[in-house]
Amino acid sequence: MSLSRAGIFTCGTVNVTCTGASLVAKYNVQGSNQQSVNISAPNVTLVNQSDATKTLTLVVDAPASVVLPNSGQPGIDISLGGSVTINSSTAAGTYRGTFNVTVDY
User: pLDDT, tens digit, for every residue of 48-63?
Assistant: First the structure.
């Protein structure tokens, strides 16, 4: 299953029920007009909230770089999406993790 940076949600697994609203992670980047910035967003380990020994890997989809369209505010919003692989042995439950995003000016 995946959620693109554009917010398109795909739930392609036959034995999985996908419900609820989906939202991409958004970050606002500000700096100098026409400045190119590099973005690093490594994969995220998602931990099952009922059993911490059960994890999934969120393969993050982030832009590698952006050029800032202005100086200071309003900056530019960047969106992060990603995908996880789920199969018949994946434990049911709620999985949570934290993005570690770095913007290099």
Answer: 999 999 999 999 999 9
Contact 18, 11 (CB under 8 A): yes
Rounded Cα gap, residues 63 and 82, in angstroms: 12
Alpha-carbon 65 to chain mean position: 15
Alpha carbon dihedral 41, 45, 47, 52, in 10-degree steps, equals -140
Q: What is the reported pTM?
A: 0.86
Residue 45: which of 60, 33, 57, 28 has the closest Cα?
Answer: 57
CA dist., res. 40 & res. 13, Å (int)? 29
**H-only helix segments in the chain:** none
Cα separation, 2 vs 19, whole angstroms: 13
